[in-house]
Design goal:
This is Phenylacetic acid degradation-related protein. By secondary structure, this protein is of the alpha+beta class. About 20% of the residues lie in helices and about 40% in strands. It has a six-stranded antiparallel sheet with strand order 1-2-6-7-8-5. The two termini are about 30 Å apart.
């Protein structure tokens, strides 16, 4: 399902995120791995600061990846609009993620003039079982 023509590919999206949202890559090592007609795939490398007691990746870490993946997916469709912002994020934690990189696959469900709605599936890298699922809504600023 092609919601809208792609306006940013992997290279331009990663470059924009590095410039406008440097903590995305420089602090976390996150990276957009693929941009497709359906959405994006983002990867967050693992480090010990993401662990919570019990040896699992923390909920805030997964929420941050879900939110960032939606931002990347929206930008891939609307172009470099830095002021698109989250208006809602709902996440369900489904199982304990392994202490390794996590990967988010993001799908845009609706892209309007003012709102974008999508869902994200998060897995431990190398696994297919979902560790979390989120729905995210982004507000798109009016065009000038």
């Amino acid at each position: 399902m092609n919601i809208q023509t792609l306006k940013m590919d992997v290279v331009t999206l990663n470059a924009f995120l590095q410039r406008e949202f440097p903590q995305w890559n420089s602090e976390t090592g996150s990276q957009v791995m693929d941009v497709t007609a359906d959405g994006v795939i983002c990867r967050l490398p693992f480090n010990d600061s993401q662990l919570r007691p019990g040896g699992t990746v923390s909920g805030p870490t997964m929420m941050g990846l879900a939110d960032s993946a939606m931002y990347a997916a929206v930008l891939s469709r609307i172009g470099p609009v830095a002021l698109a912002v989250t208006t809602n994020l709902n996440i369900n934690f489904m199982r304990k993620p392994e202490p390794r990189a996590i990967v988010a696959t993001r799908r845009i469900l609706k892209l309007g003039k003012r709102l974008a709605i999508g869902d994200v599936s998060i897995v431990s890298e190398g696994d297919t079982d979902l560790v979390a699922h989120a729905t995210v809504t982004y507000s798109i600023p009016p065009q000038r």
